[in-house]
Amino acid sequence: MTSLLVIIVLVLLAVALWQLTKIFDLTQVGSTSDSSQVANDKDNNVQGYLMFGFLAFLYIFTIYGLFAWGDLPLHTPASEHGGQVDNLMNITWILIFTVQAITQVLLHYFAFKYKGKKDQKALYFADNNKLEALWSIIPAVVLAGLILYGLYAWTNIMFVDKDEDVIEIEIYAQQFKWTARFAGEDNVLGKANVRYIEGVNTLGVDLSDPNAQDDIVVSELHIPKGKKIHFKFRSQDVLHSAYMPHFRAQMNCVPGMVTEFAFTPIYTTAEYRDLPYMIEKVSHINDLRAKKSAELIAKGESGLDPYTFDYLLLCNKICGASHYNMQMKIIVDTPEDYRKWLASQASLVSQVKASLETPAENSSATEGTQQPIDTVAAEKVVIK
Ligand SMILES: [Cu+2]
């Protein structure tokens, strides 16, 4: 309602201004001023200086943006290959920034220098092969270099040595949650297919496959520091995209096919929380939350909990109504903690057996765990 009123007021203001200019024009009738529709030297001068004004606005806004929001982009990468991605990104930024700084200055300066003047005719200039070759070859070489470096970095990151000792983990996407499957002792994931989805076996693991006997299905991803993790992605329904920003990793999850990505985490969750930049960021977020909490409490509502940093696996494809809430916590442990955690997890086969033995109890218990509570709440909010 308020925005409608604001729009009406703005429209009325615009109409009033338009009427005022018309009245002003009428008062000028008969005076000696130039009322021609053709731009004169004075108009061209004004336009020339306005070009400079716009240039100043561009740079002031850019510099302001760098100071005001410069700390928002992702900081220290948490994976071994992350530095390569950041390097590529930084080189691209530096190139874009330099080229835009030079071309914008030239564009606006020439617009000012060659502004229209009375009785001055534009020079007819057909072409200049040398100039055209120059401004075609330089960008072609620079872009080719950038693309080649990108391809080199990409193949470097995506290459997984067959003989390398890696941990196999499957990430399973569905509207609107993530599930992880660990390959267990044999480090080989059992076969899976949507046709096998039944009861507790929500990932459709082929339980008759010998490799599936020790597979472990969890809703919170634990990985050890310093060990290469080989992820295999599947989707049950639509296109999703597994996005782990702190590890500079992203891969589409496509129904009907398996996609892959591998990386080595280099900071445990605890170590990453202790990075000076993260301490500062978290304290800033908590200052904002404290302010918001005070407002909420004043209204008689409950306050917000303080924020603690966690690595997240997010969905980066708009996959439906609760897409925004499709996330899974990633915990990077020390290798010892990881081993302890993995040993404490029950295998999928044992979970299925337990659910078959006591179907009534387990079906209700698993229902509760299968659907994260926040997702249900989120869906309700969307429906409202
Ligand atoms: Cu999704």
TrEMBL record:
Its EC number(s): 7.1.1.9
Keywords in alphabetical order: Electron transport, Membrane, Respiratory chain, Translocase, Transmembrane, Transmembrane helix, Transport
Stored SUPFAM superfamilies: Cupredoxins (SSF49503), Cytochrome c oxidase subunit II-like, transmembrane region (SSF81464)
Principal localisation: membrane
TM helices/strands, residue ranges: 6-27, 48-70, 90-112, 133-154
Subcellular location: Membrane
Highest taxon listed in the record's lineage: Bacteria
Pfam families: COX2_TM
PANTHER family: CYTOCHROME C OXIDASE SUBUNIT 2, CYTOCHROME C OXIDASE, SUBUNIT II
Stated name of the protein: cytochrome-c oxidase
Organism name: Flavobacterium zubiriense
